[in-house]
Amino acid sequence: MGKTKHTGPIKLPAKPDPKLWVSKIPFGLGKVKPKHIRETAKIAWQNRDNLPYAVRILTQGVCDGCALGVSGLYDQTLAGPHICTTRLNVLRLNTMPAIRQELLHADIDELSRMSSTELRQLGRIPYPLIRRKGERRFRRATWDEALDTVASKMRGLDPKQMAFYLTARGITNESYYVAAKVARLLGTNNIDNASRICHSPSKTALKRSVGVGASTCNYKDWIGTDVLVFWGSVAANNQPVSTKYMYAAKRKGTKIIVINPYYEPSMEQYWIPSIAESALFGTKLADDVYQVNIGGDIAFMNGIMKVWFEMEAREPGSAIDHAFVAAHTNGIEELRAHVAQLDWTTLTQSSGLTRERISELAALLARAASAVFVWSMGLTQHRFGTDNISQVANLALLRGFLGREHCGLMPIRGHSGVQGSGEMGADPFSLPGGEMNSAADRDRIEQLWGFELPKWQGDIVGVTLENALLPEEQERKLRLFYTSGGNFLETMPDPAFVRNALESMDVRVHQDIILNTSTLLDAREAVVVLPAMTRYEQPGGGTSTSTERMVYFSPEIDGPRIGEARAEWDIYVDLARRVKPEAAAQLGCETAEAIRAEIALAAPSYDGIQHLRERGDVFQSGGAWLCEDGVCPTPDGRGRLLPIELPELRKPEGHFAVTTRRGKQFNSMIYSDVDPFNEADRYDVLIHKEDAKELALNEGEAIVVYNGFGRMHGRVKQADVKQGNIEVHWPEGNSLIPKGVYEPFAGIPEYNTAVIVEKAETYHAHKDTRYVEKRIIELEIEMEG
Q1: Where are the beta strands (DSSP E) in 425-525?
Q2: Which domains does the chain have, with CATH numbers?
Q3: pTM for this structure?
């Protein structure tokens, strides 16, 4: 799409800058912070039984953690080696031995007493397993028995009664592509992926606002931009290598702004282990933090635009890039009229920020010649997530922060493979390189694949789970669920409902490298477990797409192999041939190289993937900047400025808005019970000291957080969180989140709601007098109103 190519890594300054130091005391002694050296030593000890292989993975493979895109120890942004504790923690998934047989075949009740962390530490799944109805242990199965069991069930189903799901744990583009092709060959459009519960609104909003579904810029654009804004993103915690890019940006004079309900300590200051100066004295990252109400971002951004239009009324050209807007956008007058009718009282109450604070950021951005907006789940995991992202796009379009150096829109990805999932067609709305609702794309893919695609609309994964509980006679009653990785018990709202749904399916297939709590649940007929290879084990290697659209080749790495584990894509191919042997010739996909050659034909922006063969091979899909020079791939080549209405935040009087946050974890895999940045326990509830004082709550006191959907027992943790808002850890707080609330455009589940906070002794003392039940009924009535 863009004509400019990425120019490769740049060097960090050689001389230190004491102005950025957090403390002159070496290694932050006495401060609450991660102990990187200690943690690295601990991880090395955990991998001592396979240390040479672990080193080869780190130095030869593409990181299977976040989507920053580190190949070996190097990336395309900064010269020098990069390593982070997230990648090191994930490393053990690749080096640990097989689960011992006496544990693997233990009574299911005994295994079910373990947490997912404990199950993960048992080791890798070595061979196929089956547990049929009434059996209390998994028994070993051959590949033929396991796949024939699944294939036989599939042949007897209406394709609308089965579904596929792929998580993002190290899964490659090749596996996403083959899964997408196999699902359609078998007649189903019920296929979805992990992006549905993290960044689906980003793709949807960017498509409608600027015509693309990915980051428009690079990490290099952070370094030297005037303003770098992190909106609802705690990159320091979820993508730790990004702190090195932040350091480089600070050294170039970039101002870093953080917008989040909680003043996340890791975004204020960080000790970056791969930079000597920072490892010793820390680095001040954030220049300012705007603590917005949970869900108040649309009001905040409308407020910024209101200030800009007021500035323009006083001095034309003082806030809006009129040349860019005139040449490259539509909708400026509609947006201006929409913002003009919004009153400041409503904007400040909804956002939680004063007019003065909103005006400060508006003025900073108006003065800036360049800016990059970075966001994550703090903006997307709302029932109005797509509107949140279109608001960010509005800001960028009004200022011309698009399609050029040091400018852009970046949904930063938390998974190494997930950017490629939809681009490979592994969701119900997408096809490789196109959209399911596009007649041209459907015709193109049907000609390439040689078979007709299903014409009905597939379901998003949340609806798929709900379909398991439909009446028997319903045509979309879900009977078979095939999931590659993932643990919906610990990722979706309302875990009790999810458990019921998973156990109501006839057959559940878990294609994975480890056990988790969902694997152990019953099914009405059978649970089939298929052992998968990691990306480093797959014959022919594999590719993954980073946040900045870099497509990296990760080679097969010499080392031990686990029992009968097979490449993910190979399992899909084998299954399809058993279900539809008559269509085997149409399937292809016999080798990783053949799959990449086919991807290049199916997804035009991935032309080049067929040439990736060796360690270090990489190309960037779309060039350095999408929408280069402001030209968007929309029908008229222009971006759309969209009036976005304020959402109803639904927080009744006396209640708190609650959202979930991540601690020391990768996805739902928890690596520590204590957050190294704030010393919060997994069941600590972050609450402002004034809110705690008003409720007469003391630090560490037992409390119950509840609403009409569920409850959570926790303890008071006074923290710098926006008053009227509380934060709980994910997934521990998912019991509070209602099921079935989806963003209307992208289908992401809502992960925010309203709750009551009460002393545990009060909650339990009045429970038998129906006090609690009365309060919950009142809450439900208020929420519905």
Answers
A1: 430-431, 434-435, 480-484, 507-512
A2: 101-194+416-532+567-607 (3.40.50.740), 209-415 (3.40.228.10), 656-774 (2.40.40.20)
A3: 0.95
